[in-house]
Write a structure and sequence with these properties.
Strand content: under 5%
Oligomer: single chain
Distance between the termini: 59 Å
Shape: elongated
Number of helices: 4
Radius of gyration: 23 Å
Helix content: 40-55%
Largest sheet: 2 strands, antiparallel
Amino acid sequence: MAPTAANNSPVFTLAEFCERNRMSKSTYYKLPIKPRFMAHHRITLEAETEWRRLMEEETNSEQAQLEAARRAELSRRAGAKAAKSPLHISNRTRGRKAVAR
């Protein structure tokens, strides 16, 4: 475990935080909500817990649910359009090449 602060709560480096939360550093920098750092660029266990709570609230928000539904609909439409293409694998016949447009 990481070094401890004066109040005996564990603190983590950015690399340790990313490992604990199964993400890369590049993913960390893309996060809309980041945990607060204390001195010397360490993240306390309390800050990590608060960050997880905020991320869960963000995921469960009405806006996030609407965005997920919008993306699912876009994916469904893209899949349907791709399946109609003469180049789609399901529309190819054995021994004949599909005509590219």
